[in-house]
Specification:
The chain is α/β, with parallel strands linked by helices. It is about 30% helix and about 30% strand. It has helices spanning about 15-20, 25-35, 110-130; strands at about 1-5, 5-10, 55-65, 75-85, 90-100, 135-140.
């Protein structure tokens, strides 16, 4: 399987500080790979090329709610959209959202740490979906 580089939607209004400091795109790739490990012989994410018959996962971060100030500044949320293709055909697509208030001791965690919890759980959600992809799936808190 190939995971295309994950990026932020062009029409999304996401604070530049969150994009640059939190590294949600690379973390999400890492968490999908970790959770999908074992479902595929190989998972490639550092390249957009691979075997011609490889399944290709395309994911985009559509929205991030993450005001600075950690848990004291309200809940945090990440919304993603993605699809899986194989041999030129769409095998399934999804939208997924996760919220977090920081969990235990959330008041002592920064915004990036809390958003990191969201993408960690989204990585697990996407990996579970990859086992049985469906069309127009709603994952996580949707």
């Amino acid at each position: 399987m190939i995971i295309k580089p994950i990026g932020f939607s062009k029409d999304a209004e996401i604070r530049d500080a969150v994009k640059q400091e939190c590294k949600l795109d690379s973390k999400l790739t890492q968490f999908i790979k970790e959770n999908a490990n074992g479902q595929y012989a190989t998972i490639v994410s550092d390249s957009t090329t691979g075997p011609a018959d490889a399944q290709v996962l395309t994911v985009e971060i559509k929205e991030v709610l993450g005001t600075a100030g950690g848990a004291w500044s309200g809940p945090k949320m990440v919304l993603i959209k993605g699809s899986l293709t194989g041999n030129g055909k769409v095998l399934g697509d999804f939208k997924a959202r996760r919220y977090s208030g920081g969990g235990m001791f959330g008041g002592y965690k920064g915004t990036c740490a809390i958003l990191g919890r969201c993408v960690k759980t989204l990585g697990k959600d996407v990996a579970e979906w990859l086992a049985h992809p469906t069309s127009q799936a709603g994952l996580g808190d949707l």
